Amino acid sequence: MLIGDLILERLRRTYRLELGEFIAPRLRKRSLFEFIIGVMLSQNTSDKNAIRAYNRLVEIYGSPITPEKILSKPLEVLMDAIRPAGLYRVRASNIYELAKLFKNRDFIDELIRRLRESSIDEARRILQSLPGVGIKTADVVLSQYFGRPVFPIDTHIRRITRRLGYVKSGKYMDISRWWMENTSRENYVELHLLLITHGRRICRARNPRCDICPLRDMCSYGSGRGDV
Question: Does residue 147 sit in helix, strand or coil?
């Protein structure tokens, strides 16, 4: 059995996956514009804060959130709406610029076609060319909206991977590649979400609960073999 699949089995026995705790799964059936906004709101903050900011957007702009609705109000209104997510000035500016692009139906159709048909690397580059979209946001869009085989890495997964001791590098693509090579493709999304859950509840940045960790015997940090 691949190591990633073994880790997934142990995490499945430990946690009940609560999709409502994550903003991306909530928005899978929404428009690509709305999905990207939701994932952007989760950058450098918790899903809890991102969900609060998204709910404020819905209260102010209505549902669904469209480019036209975003552009119909002053930028200051958008800033205030997404304040719970932090970095609201930068985020609002990026969302506003994104709305200007997405108000064009031909742009949306061509973007979706290219994201479906291009190689993973090219699709990632296309997404990263959009305002405010970084590599992790791009990978979440590819993974959870388009069902493409990528493994997004957030701060929890980066920390867990380093503590396990399987990847010495802290580089995003090195960590992502390791999980992809050591996990069955059909398990990517579930393992991604369960690793985040594990990072929030047990393998925390401060005071990790190694005594009850289901991965302790596999972990350099938890077994005392490492110091990450």
Answer: coil
Domain boundaries, the chain: 3-17+151-218, 31-145
Contact 179/151 with Cβ under 8 angstroms? yes
Whether 225 shows a pLDDT value over 70: the answer reads: no
pLDDT at position 227 over 90? no
Spatial separation of the C-alpha atoms in residues 171 and 15, rounded to whole Å? 28
Q: Which fold has domain 3-17+151-218?
A: Endonuclease Iii, domain 2 (1.10.1670)
Whose tokens are 């701060």? That residue is: 155
What sign does the dihedral 154-158-164-166 (CA atoms) show? positive
Q: Identify the architecture of domain 31-145 in CATH.
A: Orthogonal Bundle (1.10)
pTM more than 0.90: yes
Q: Tell me how long the chain is.
A: 228
